[in-house]
Write a structure and sequence with these properties.
76% of the residues lie in helices and 0% in strands. The protein is mainly α and 361 residues long. Helix 3 packs parallel to helix 16 and helix 6 packs across helix 13.
Length: 361
């Protein structure tokens, strides 16, 4: 669970870095990263606590036990829809940036359907297979990150620590605004425990794994925000579509590593494909349990629906940016998903539902 959550956050940090590109925090972007980490860790802890009370069950099951048959069904399907829409968003974002940075002449649908095919296959294999895949991928990703940081330290780059000052020059709100989208993405990754938590053992360690993964991802996000601000400058970093990719292109060690941006592209591609697969899997698990179906029956249906959508509609990069604004997308998502988890925890406690209500530890 820890590795899965960390990997689902690698792509958005190595790619878009929303804490830097969204809002006007500028040199205070690193503060926004810390705020996003703290807020999302608290909300993710609530989601893990809820999953711990219902071991061996996903949201699709315990929502009906907690909120009643019809309200629980509606909540479950709404959460499943959110993760399905996130799957589409990841597909579109991956396609847009790949086409724009690597193979501009290749039709967009080639990227989209290729990644979707991998995601459907991974989701069809199930949570256990994705857990084993995470153990392999984290080695590749971590190795690339270590090499990238070492190259960054060794490369002769213009770095000015004055780029990080003055602190809070524009007040607190720009920092809070910059934290909204990263907090939502961290919460979404932590919220995967509502679907994948049913497969974890021992359940007692679930909350520690989820919170630890969010904190680890948050520290990496803070590091990336500091690096991009120092090297590119606050204003230039904000105006970039992918700040860390711009940083990587500026690194050049003659005779050793002349295309360090390829390391970042590898991390980004692996993380994006893995994240798309996990989101599709969570949507399938929650909706299948809510409807009393098998996950292997639901995955092909969701895959076919996603394929139909991406073939019929292709957004521009400006559409993606508008969809990832702090308001209403960010705040709305935080309040909606966080509110559902908090409501269910309160109802569970009042009704004595879950493990404790059955006399468990």
């Amino acid at each position: 669970m820890f590795l899965i959550i960390v990997l689902t956050r690698i792509a958005v940090m190595a790619d878009g870095l929303p804490v830097v590109t969204v809002g006007s925090a500028l040199q205070d972007a690193w503060l926004g990263a810390l705020l996003a980490t703290a807020a999302s860790a608290a909300l993710a802890a609530l989601a893990a606590t809820l999953a711990m009370r219902f071991p061996g069950k996903s949201l699709g099951v315990f929502a009906r036990e907690t909120l009643g048959r019809w309200l629980g069904l509606g909540v479950s399907l709404a959460v499943a829809l959110v993760y399905f829409l996130l799957t589409l968003f990841e597909l579109y974002q991956l396609t847009t940036l790949t086409k724009g940075t690597i193979l501009p002449r290749t039709p967009a649908w080639v990227f989209t359907l290729s990644v979707l095919s991998v995601a459907v296959y991974g989701a069809y294999l199930g949570a256990d297979a994705m857990g084993r895949a995470a153990e392999v991928l984290i080695t590749i990703v971590f190795g690339a990150v270590v090499v990238g940081v070492c190259v960054l330290v060794a490369a002769p780059l213009p770095q000015s620590y004055s780029s990080l000052s003055p602190v809070l020059e524009r007040g607190v709100w720009p920092v809070a605004e910059a934290a909204i989208i990263p907090a939502l993405w961290f919460l979404v990754s932590g919220g995967t425990v509502l679907g994948l938590g049913k497969f974890t053992r021992p359940t007692q360690k679930l909350r520690g794994a989820v919170v630890g993964a969010v904190l680890a991802s948050g520290m990496l996000l803070t590091l990336f925000a500091v690096i991009s601000t120092l090297i590119l400058g606050p204003s230039e970093a904000r105006d970039q579509l992918a700040p860390m990719l711009s940083v990587a292109r500026a690194i050049n060690l003659p005779g050793i590593l002349e295309r360090s941006d390829l390391l970042l592209i590898v991390i980004w591609l692996l993380g994006a494909v893995f994240e798309t697969t996990i989101f599709l899997l969570v949507a399938a698990i929650v909706s299948a349990d809510a409807l009393g179906l098998n996950v292997t029956q639901v995955v092909p249906i969701l895959g076919a629906a996603a394929a139909l959508v991406v073939v019929l509609y292709t957004p521009t990069v400006f559409d993606l940016r508008r969809a990832a604004q702090p308001t209403p997308t960010g705040l709305g998502g935080l309040f909606a998903l966080g509110g559902v988890v908090a409501l269910m925890l309160v109802v569970t406690a009042l009704r004595g539902a879950g493990r404790r209500g059955r006399g468990g530890p």
